[in-house]
Write a structure and sequence with these properties.
With about 100 residues, the chain is mainly alpha-helical. The chain folds into two domains: about 45 residues, no CATH class; about 50 residues, no CATH class. The protein contains four helices and four strands. The strands form two sheets. Strands 1-2 form a two-stranded parallel sheet. A two-stranded antiparallel sheet has the order 3-4. The longest helix is centred in the C-terminal third of the chain and has 21 residues. This is Reverse transcriptase.
Length: about 100
């Protein structure tokens, strides 16, 4: 795995930031395996769930709490569109409700 990352660094000219990189294992993985991987890779173990490119990454059943942040962003985006496309009458009635 580390050879692949080194190859990526050579080809792309980019460096992998080990302070921001993690490896993920199942929660029942033996502690000794986690320690070995940490020593071999120089990476830290991460925990599930985590957010990648704005989406939750997890294993097992879906939970509403995993999607709360994503739903908040989507709703905020929809409301911003709604406000942008309101007619003058819509703005007027919205102002009167406050």
């Amino acid at each position: 795995m580390m050879n692949i990352l080194r190859g990526y660094e050579l080809v792309s000219g980019q460096k992998v930031n080990k302070d921001k990189s993690f490896f993920y294992l199942h929660e029942k993985t033996l502690l000794i395996m986690t320690i070995r991987l940490r020593k071999l890779t120089g990476l830290k173990p991460g925990n599930f769930p985590f957010i990648y490119l704005g989406c939750p990454v997890y294993y097992g059943r879906k939970h509403r709490r995993y999607y709360k942040g994503l739903i908040k962003k989507i709703v905020a985006r929809i409301y911003s569109w709604q406000n942008r496309f309101l007619t003058f009458g819509g703005w007027e009635s919205k102002a009167n409700t406050r």
